[in-house]
Design a protein that fits this description.
Helix content: 10-25%
Structural class: alpha+beta
Radius of gyration: 19 Å
Number of helices: 5
Largest sheet: 13 strands, mixed
């Protein structure tokens, strides 16, 4: 089973401490069972700052096919945030299972500074983490085609790439639609903490090979996986997400949660960030 991390940056891919979502090969799709929604869910209102006003797509959500909702919100938020300059990303991560050789404590806060070029691609990046156990630590950085994972003591080559501020949901849906996997997408619109929001459930059924591999990792008999995202309908930003294993009886096993998501454009990095990047130049 091919795995593609649900991460925003190349550093996060190599550090390997975020959620993992398998992205499978390409073909056509069919529909699967519908999962019941979990009760008493909460979302955290994000803070989004931009230095100019950009009009994102204004098509009413209820006029869009369910399969197109993830890419619609992605395009809407990209119109606000993808432009030359610095983007600051922050979130709190809870990992109930983690196969990383050196996992971070749960929970921990992730703080990433990302510099975009004129094409909206990442050309510089610095990533920190904070937990009660570790304090603030440098996870890694990249500049001038070189990436360094300080957490794993690794160095690797990098190329400019476009960040996925939707945490890869749109690309996961697209990959599944091109495959033979069964899937379902459920949309629930409502008022979350005083703002219009959408809850998007993306359910994907495991193949027999996937089930065999999963049986070697966990004791439960799992039939698939559920990606649950909450979006700010006005901006298209992801404001919280959860990843579940789905049992044969359709019950859910929570695997990871990402919350308190903050994405800001136009802020200037601190001296600490510049010191890290200056160090990268001297390598």
């Amino acid at each position: 089973m091919k795995n593609k991390p649900i991460v925003l940056t190349m550093l996060s891919v190599l550090i390997g401490v975020l959620l993992l979502s398998p992205l499978f090969s390409q073909a056509t799709s069919t529909k699967a069972k519908t999962l019941p929604h979990q009760a008493n869910e909460t979302v955290v209102i994000p803070l989004i700052e931009t230095d100019e006003t950009i009009q994102p797509p204004s098509i009413p959500v209820d006029e869009i096919e369910e399969e197109q909702i993830p890419s619609f919100y992605k395009s809407k938020f990209d119109a606000l945030i993808i432009k030359p300059g610095w983007v600051y990303l922050e979130f709190t991560q809870f990992d109930l299972t983690n196969s990383s050789p050196r996992p971070l404590p749960t929970p921990h806060k992730r703080m990433t500074w990302i510099k975009l070029n004129d094409d909206g691609e990442v050309i510089e990046e610095v990533e920190f983490a904070y937990s009660n156990e570790t304090g603030k630590v440098l996870l890694g950085y990249s500049k001038n085609g070189v990436g360094v994972s300080s957490w794993h003591n690794e160095t690797f080559a990098t190329q400019p790439y476009r960040p996925q501020f939707d945490f890869y949901l749109a690309s996961n849906v697209d990959g599944t639609q091109r495959s033979n996997q069964k899937y379902d997408i459920l949309i629930e619109n409502g008022d979350f903490h005083g703002m219009p929001g959408s809850k998007v459930d993306f359910l994907r059924e495991f193949s027999d090979q996937d089930k065999l591999m999963m049986s070697k990792q966990i004791t439960a008999s799992v039939a698939g996986e559920l990606f649950r995202y909450w979006y700010d309908m006005s901006t298209g930003q992801v404001i919280q997400m959860e990843y579940y294993y789905v049992n044969e009886d359709q019950s859910l096993i929570l695997n990871a949660r990402t919350e308190n998501i903050v994405i800001k454009f136009g802020l200037l990095p601190s001296s600490e960030v510049h010191e890290v990047l200056d160090k990268a130049l001297s390598r």
